Amino acid sequence: MASSLLVLLDDIATVLDDVSALTQVAAKKTAGVLGDDLALNAQQVAGVRADRELPVVWAVCKGSFVNKAILVPGALLLSAVGPWAISPLLMAGGVFLCFEGFEKVAHKLLYSRADDRRRLRTGGVHRET
Q1: What is the DSSP letter of 56?
Q2: CA-to-CA distance for 96 and 75, rounded, in angstroms?
Q3: What pTM did the predictor assign?
């Protein structure tokens, strides 16, 4: 009887150890998701009058909380249901970020500020003059 109680306690300790290890892995995987808005906050507040600063920070904070409420459970669910899909999704995200970076560099090199102002005046339609 006493040996079966010790075996049960050992099994419970093993399960708790596994849960602890999986929690650490999940925390490492979601750390990037939780810190993604830090640079965005400072960028959005720059150049804002002092009386408008807190409403801007609050709006960004609310948006960040909504994103986290969707992304963190989604990431944990994906990790539990289809861990094989994580690497291809991360690679697709990396390709998209490379495309965005190239697009910004190409825009800086190929277009002038006058072209940008002309596009703003015409609603984004490029007309040859």
Answers
A1: H
A2: 19
A3: 0.46
Q: Is 21 exposed, middle or buried (0-12, 13-18, 19+ CB in 10 A)?
A: exposed
Task: Give kind and range of the element (H or E) at residue 114.
Answer: helix 113-121
**Reported confidence tier of residue 11, pLDDT bands at 50, 70, 90:** confident
CA distances from 84 to 23, 46, 63, 97, 120 (A): 19, 41, 29, 21, 44
Q: Using an 8 Å Cβ cutoff, are 72 and 26 in contact?
A: no
Radius of gyration of the chain (CA): 24
For residue range 41-58, list pLDDT tens digits in order: 555 556 666 677 777 778
DSSP annotation string for 6-21: HHHHHHHHHHHHHHHH
The answer to whether 37 and 64 are in contact (CB under 8 A) is: yes
Describe the crossing of helices 50-81 and 2-34 by its angle, rounded to 10 degrees.
130
- Give the pLDDT mean for 113-128: 69
